[in-house]
C-alpha cells in the first residue's frame, strides 16, 4: 500500500476557529475543505467511532488490524485518547496485541498509539480534569495527521458526542481530520435510536459514515438482520453485521469492503 497522501482539512492555526464556525455555518466549513484539501479518499485514515461506550470499537479495530496483516498490507492503529487505564487490559493493549502480529515490525510504542492516557474510566474531559491535565486539541489533530506508512486506523473514545475538553467533542475531532468514518453500533434494545442519532449528528456537520458495523450485543430483542433492515429504511448505510466471536473470515470480508476503493 502506498504511503497516505491524505492531509487534514485544517492546519493547526485554524482548527479551533473553523471548528466553531462549522457548528453554525456548514457552508463555510465545506468551502474551506474544498479550498485547502486535496484528498485521496482511498488513502485517508479510517476513524472508528461508535454510538456509545463499550459497543465494540476496539474489537472491530483489532480485528481489522489482523485482517490487514493477513492480507499482507501495512497497517497502523491509534487510540490517541484513552481513559480507564486503572482497569487493564485497556483498549490500547488490545490494539498493541494485534499490531505485534505484523511481520518484522518493531514492538508497538504505547506513547505513539495512546499519548493521552488517564486512569479514571470517565469521559476524557472529566478524566483529564481529575489529574490536572488537558488534551490540547491542536496537538491531538497534529498527532493523528502525522505521515505514516500504510492504512491508518484511528479509534475514537466513547461515542460521537463524548467531550474531549471544555469545548470539543469527538465530533469536532472527526470534523477536523476529515477521515473516512466507520460507525460501530450494537444490536441491543434501543440501538436504533442511538444509531440514527449518531448518524444525524455526523450529518449535521456535513459528515457521513462510510460504513456502519452492527456488532452483535450479548442480548438483542430481534435478529440483527431485522435491526439492519429498520436502520436502512431510515436512511442508514447498509450495515455490515458482525456476529459475536466473529471468525477471521468475517473480518476479512470487512477488510475487503473497506479496501475496495483501493483497487483499480
From TrEMBL:
The protein's required cofactors:
Mg(2+)
Q: Where in the cell is it found?
A: Cytoplasm
Q: Species name for this entry? A: Granulibacter bethesdensis
Protein name, UniProt field: ATP-dependent dethiobiotin synthetase BioD
Q: In which pathway does it act?
A: Cofactor biosynthesis; biotin biosynthesis; biotin from 7,8-diaminononanoate: step 1/2
**Subunit and partners:** Homodimer.
What does the record give as the active site? 79
Cite the binding residues for ATP: 54-59, 91, 155-158, 215-216
Coiled coil (UniProt feature): none
Q: Which domain of life is it from?
A: Bacteria
Q: Which GO terms describe its cellular component?
A: cytosol
Q: Give EC number(s), comma-separated.
A: 6.3.3.3
Q: Give the reactions, separated by semicolons, that this protein catalyses.
A: (7R,8S)-7,8-diammoniononanoate + CO2 + ATP = (4R,5S)-dethiobiotin + ADP + phosphate + 3 H(+)
Q: Does the keyword Transport apply?
A: no
Database matches in PANTHER family: DETHIOBIOTIN SYNTHETASE (PTHR43210)
Q: What does this protein do?
A: Catalyzes a mechanistically unusual reaction, the ATP-dependent insertion of CO2 between the N7 and N8 nitrogen atoms of 7,8-diaminopelargonic acid (DAPA, also called 7,8-diammoniononanoate) to form a ureido ring.
Specify where it is mainly localized. Answer: cytoplasm
Q: Which UniProt keywords apply?
A: ATP-binding, Biotin biosynthesis, Cytoplasm, Ligase, Magnesium, Metal-binding, Nucleotide-binding
> What biological-process terms (Gene Ontology) are attached?
biotin biosynthetic process
Membrane-spanning segments = none
- For the ligand (Mg(2+)), the binding residues are 58, 91, 155
Where, by residue number, does substrate bind?
Answer: 83
Q: Which family does it belong to?
A: Belongs to the dethiobiotin synthetase family.
Amino acid at each position: 500500500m502506498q504511503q497516505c497522501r491524505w492531509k487534514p482539512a485544517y492546519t493547526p492555526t485554524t482548527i479551533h476557529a473553523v471548528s466553531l464556525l462549522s457548528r453554525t455555518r456548514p457552508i463555510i466549513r465545506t468551502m474551506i475543505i474544498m479550498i485547502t484539501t486535496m484528498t485521496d479518499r482511498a488513502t485517508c485514515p479510517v476513524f472508528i467511532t461508535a454510538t456509545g461506550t463499550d459497543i465494540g470499537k476496539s474489537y472491530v479495530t483489532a480485528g481489522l488490524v489482523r485482517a490487514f496483516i493477513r492480507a499482507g498490507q501495512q497497517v497502523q492503529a491509534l487510540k490517541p485518547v484513552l481513559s480507564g487505564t486503572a482497569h487493564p487490559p485497556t483498549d490500547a493493549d488490545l490494539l498493541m496485541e494485534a499490531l505485534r502480529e505484523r511481520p518484522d515490525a518493531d514492538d508497538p510504542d504505547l506513547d505513539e498509539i495512546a499519548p493521552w492516557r488517564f486512569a479514571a474510566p470517565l469521559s476524557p474531559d472529566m478524566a483529564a480534569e481529575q489529574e490536572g491535565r488537558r488534551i490540547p486539541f491542536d496537538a491531538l489533530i497534529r498527532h493523528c495527521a502525522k505521515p505514516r506508512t500504510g492504512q491508518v486506523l484511528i479509534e475514537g473514545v466513547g461515542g460521537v458526542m463524548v467531550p474531549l475538553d471544555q469545548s470539543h467533542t469527538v465530533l469536532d475531532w472527526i470534523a477536523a481530520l476529515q477521515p473516512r468514518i466507520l460507525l460501530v453500533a450494537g444490536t441491543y434494545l434501543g440501538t436504533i435510536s442511538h444509531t440514527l442519532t449518531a448518524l444525524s449528528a455526523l450529518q449535521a456537520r456535513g459528515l457521513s459514515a462510510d460504513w456502519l458495523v452492527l456488532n452483535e450485543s450479548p442480548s438483542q430483542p430481534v435478529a440483527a438482520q431485522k435491526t439492519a433492515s429498520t436502520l436502512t429504511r431510515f436512511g442508514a448505510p447498509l450495515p455490515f453485521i458482525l456476529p459475536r466471536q466473529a471468525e477471521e473470515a468475517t473480518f476479512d470480508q470487512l477488510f475487503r469492503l473497506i479496501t475496495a476503493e483501493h483497487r483499480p
